[in-house]
Design a protein that fits this description.
The protein contains 15 helices and 10 strands. It is α/β, with parallel strands linked by helices. It folds into 3 domains: 186 residues, 3-Layer(aba) Sandwich (Rossmann fold); 58 residues; 82 residues, Arc Repressor Mutant, subunit A. The strands form 3 sheets. A 5-stranded parallel beta sheet has the order 2-3-4-1-5, with helices on both faces. Strands 8-10-9 form a 3-stranded antiparallel beta sheet. The longest helix is centred in the C-terminal third of the chain and has 25 residues. The N and C termini lie far apart (61 Å).
């Protein structure tokens, strides 16, 4: 029997076989490209918690725009962003400059990351703007344009982001054929929007990516399995769907590990019950551990206090468990909401925004409590 390829892609940024529950967002962005300069969707910020598919959305909209004949340049918002984008623009201008009648096709330079922390010197910014103008001069006569895609926006690269955003604003005011898509965690996007120089970004189209309705998850899992030549029993499909919680990264993790655990061409309940724990373990190491590492000791103490509850936590009770005043605890509540780790679900109640984080904290409580005690010494 031939080995069937696993169709699920539980890797950060990898395009899944189906983008579940995101088609309306993609369509809106593409329509803004077709609507011409000034369309509101031409500057879009994708945000949401880890694993919700922000990088995937950047990749997908860039791919859609390239199919319209646009040039796309993608990178991550690490220091040196403007210099790297200037280099990419210069390469593209050189490639197209002596072939002005050639039909324009898409082009993407993958982000290279790294670099030292520095503010781009004035001459770099001037060169960036100049190369942007030269490339648009080559593209616009053919009815195409340029899309810039920036992932992982963060205050540590605020100088580069200021140069990028203010240049984009200038080009937009001139009616140039440009688009800008960015992605970042909620707290990082909030930092960006609060910057005094980047006030115009507050008018950007902000897409807050959330969990996918379980009905759409069920349909997507079933279709992905059958498209690759296997079948899945109804009870297995229901249990696998429920295990994802509608969380996009977990959809891929559950699908991947359930597919691995199946024998033959039928995925049954036994395969699901073997695959889901493996998916949860991988979620813990790739999402939960990373999310918690970025938090302060008191942030993690707040989450540990929440983990005692089987459902939403009463904020007053969380403060009691922390042995602090409600006012003191509210500071960390706000920080965790802003970071996309928890969410307010009712007046005075919060819950975890990332699936299985409660269970992960219970399993690793001793480790995080010990770390908190060590920090207090």
């Amino acid at each position: 029997m031939a080995v069937r390829r696993n169709p699920f892609k539980p890797t950060a940024g990898a395009l899944p076989p189906l983008l579940v529950g995101r088609q309306d967002v993609i369509d809106e962005f593409v329509e803004s490209i077709e609507d011409g300069p000034g369309a509101p969707g031409r500057i879009t910020i994708f945000t949401g918690p880890r694993g919700v598919g922000k990088t995937v959305m950047l990749t997908e909209v860039a791919d859609q725009v390239r199919q319209l004949g646009w040039v796309t340049i993608s990178d991550a918002a690490t220091p040196g962003l403007v210099a790297r984008m200037t280099h990419a623009l210069t390469r593209r201008v050189d490639e197209l400059g002596d072939k002005p009648t050639r039909p324009m096709t898409g082009f993407t330079l993958p982000g290279v990351g790294g670099g030292l922390t520095f503010a781009p010197p004035p001459e770099v910014v001037v060169d960036f703007r100049g190369q942007l103008g030269k490339l648009l001069d080559l593209l616009e006569p053919h009815g195409t344009g340029l899309m810039l895609a920036v992932d992982e926006v963060h205050r540590k690269s605020i100088d580069d982001l200021r140069a990028l955003a203010t240049t984009y604003q200038l080009l937009t005011s001139e009616g140039r054929n440009v688009a800008l898509a960015m992605a970042g965690l909620p707290s990082s996007v909030s930092d960006l929007l609060s910057d005094d120089i980047l006030t115009f970004l507050r008018r950007a189209n902000r897409e807050v990516l959330d969990d996918v309705p379980l009905g759409e998850v069920r349909d997507a899992l079933g279709k992905t399995v059958t498209d690759e030549g296997r079948t899945i029993t109804d009870d297995a499909l229901e249990e696998a769907t429920a295990a994802t919680g509608g969380y996009p990264f977990m959809i891929q993790l559950v699908g991947y590990h359930v597919w691995r655990k199946a024998d033959g061409d039928v995925i049954d309940l036994a395969a699901v019950r073997a695959g889901v724990p493996a998916a949860r373990k991988r979620l813990g190491s790739t999402v939960h551990e990373t999310a918690l590492a970025d938090l302060s000791a008191v942030d993690r103490t707040y989450l540990l206090a929440m983990s005692h509850d089987d459902g939403p936590s009463r904020t007053g009770e969380v403060a009691k468990r922390m042995d602090v005043t409600p006012f003191y605890a509210s500071t960390y509540r706000a920080r965790l909401i802003d970071a996309g780790i928890i969410e307010a679900v009712d007046h005075g109640y919060v819950d975890f925004a990332i699936p299985y984080l409660r269970e992960y904290l219970r399993e690793h409580a001793a480790r995080y409590e010990m770390a908190a005690r060590h920090r207090k010494r």
